[in-house]
Target: Copper oxidase
Amino acid sequence: MASVPRRGVLKGLPLAAGAAIAGRATSAHADTRPTASAPAAAGTPFPQPATRTVRPRPRRLETRLTVALTEQRLPGVGTVLTRTYDGSLPGPTLRVRPGDSLHLTQVNALPPNPAQAHHDLGMNVPHGFNTFNLHLHGMHVAPTGEADNVFRSFEPAATPGKAATTWRSVVDIPLNHPAGTFWYHPHHHGSTATQLLNGLAGVIIVEGDIDAVPEVAAAKDIVVCINELKVSGGKVPDLTSETTYEDITSTFLVNGAANPTLTIAPGEVQRWRIVNAGALTTLYLTLDGQQTHQIAADGITFTSPVPVTALQLPVGGRADLLVRGGEPGVHRLTAGGVRQPLMTLKVTGTPRAMALPTRLPGRPTTLPEPARKRSLIFRSYENVFSGDFRNAYRILGDGETPPTDPQAGRTDPQWGRFRPDYVNHRVRLGQVEEWTVTNDSRRHAHHPLHLHTNHFLVTEINHRPLATPVWHDTVGLPPHGSITLRLRAEDFTGRSMVHCHQSQHEDEGMMQIVEYVR
Model:
């Protein structure tokens, strides 16, 4: 069987993952409406999110995040009322190291949730838009207690005028945690898509071995957090029907600005930490005129830099790039199907001679033969229910959630959909498993796969082995195709998640519980 080369993995894997056809961005409604960034000309200075760091003794990052409705003027967009962390979009960047602890006080200053009528589809209908929790996307930390526990609910005050509610998260970062780029966002079932489309997200940087590589340490470290907003009438509407966001053009912002301008000198090397912090759209990225090497995917360092000319990031995916300035001039980071540039790069100034590394402290890309195999099928059914949410987004195959009524067929509201009291998979720590995950959807076929707590090693695309497997925590499923991965869960027991990271699909039930056991 022919293998896919390493360079083809970096281009082809996310390409298949995001289901981009001819380089177009893909989203929930890619078949009906292209996306666009905010209509802004280059010239906005390049912003960086505020950074919060650890106190030296003890090694603890103790901070407070307040979630509230904020009216703010976004460069290149205008005035928008949106839910934010501490009044900024994106939220502050959190910098930590392995062995640190993260102590977060989270304040819910949002209005009370309106009363919601009982729905025949149960909890797999978007709801509770002012309730949130905390997910540390990609981080290898405990999924239980007050840590990365997405089964928690940070409710707002029950009645108007009452004091904001306060919630605490305590996360111990293990000494073996990989150094890399991660992010945080709400993950309360039913409200994730709406809150992400408000811009509720922030970057987490775990410092470590890769930062000591001389050529990497010499490069300017730049966060490129890409948010996707659905702005209509000066605000982001709540997801109250299947088609709420269908006719609203996406607004893409980089660090809270539309098409900001970054400068680089000829020959200068910069490290870009790119995060797709959207909810719906996979981005096919190209940067003209520059020499670009990828050094990490989803927070896991490669063993050596890999030249790339294009990169597709699924929703939730991250890529660390080393970008070397080329000839003086103006260049653009673009995404296929998005009408405006995401950002502008201006090459100017005195030339510099900066080197690229030849080797990196990457994780080995092999795992032993599996002791167990599983098969999962992501499948969408259109127009099977009545009411405002007519589609069914299901994960079928091994471990599928059983139906309420076996005779109901595709109209059963529970079959293959999230159920909070049903464990779909029990995965034993230290045991290697192989999963084949198939995308068997038709129209709604955009399904980025995300696993919490542990990274997995992608070994095959459409049953073609990769010459060099790649570690991920989020990867798109090729339409009418499959991904084969190997997983060795380590360190942490407890209930966790696997789901589609097209967050509207997730809110409508395309999610399962994975319990890690000894």
About this structure: The CA atoms of residues 100 and 405 lie 49 Å apart. Residues 372-516 form one domain. The chain has three domains: 51-208, 216-347, 372-516. The chain has a mean pLDDT of 91.
